[in-house]
Design brief:
Blueprint (H helix, E strand, L loop, with lengths): L1 H43 L11 H10 L5 H23 L3 H20 L3 H26 L7 H6 L20
Helix pairs in contact: 1-3, 1-5, 2-3, 3-4, 4-5
């Protein structure tokens, strides 16, 4: 019995660690989207700095629309659309492993823009983020292979089917007045 408790405790600890890695990996898609929007907003309002974690495609969009009248607003709207794709990857990666793969492929392709422009720091950061996202993907796959956790005693009693039927009330019989 003690061995079963030890195994279940180890399994629960492993599950908790894998769930944390899985959430962390999926969370990177939100960071990519958020920092890309900040970079785009800074650019739209005339700033010249940006976060390294931003997307290369949003920088390309900003450069292309800068030549068009009112292009900065158009660029910002397009950049938000691109960022929303990464938000969708983050949301879907929490329940579907395929979203991890699609998001990593799109982010790797975005990293190629940094390779083409010889931005080694941006390329290196893309590689690092891809590694962190891949850890989340691996954790999600391992979680799917773990046996389902056994319901706790409190959980079983909370389920209506698990509650024992109550006996009918006892009939005291006829009462006589005093």
């Amino acid at each position: 019995m003690a061995e079963d408790d030890s195994n279940s405790a180890a399994l629960a600890a492993q599950r908790m660690q894998l769930e944390q890695q899985h959430r962390s990996g999926a969370g990177w898609f939100f960071w990519i989207a958020g920092l890309s929007i900040v970079n785009s907003a800074v650019n739209a309002f005339g700033g010249s700095w940006g976060f390294i974690a931003g997307l290369g495609i949003t920088q390309v969009i900003d450069a292309l629309v800068a030549k068009v009248a009112s292009g900065r607003l158009l660029g910002l709207m397009l950049d938000i659309g691109v960022a929303l794709v990464f938000v969708a990857f983050g949301v879907m990666a929490q329940t579907r492993n395929g979203a991890y793969v699609a998001g990593m492929v799109v982010y790797a392709l975005d990293g190629l823009l940094f390779l083409i422009s010889s931005d080694w720091v941006g390329l290196g950061f893309h590689a690092l983020v891809l590694w962190w996202i891949s850890r989340g993907f691996v954790a999600a796959r391992r979680l799917a292979e773990l046996p389902s956790p056994a319901p706790s005693a409190g959980t079983a009693l909370a389920h209506p089917a698990a509650v024992a039927p109550q006996p009918p009330p006892i009939d005291p019989g006829p009462t006589t007045p005093k």
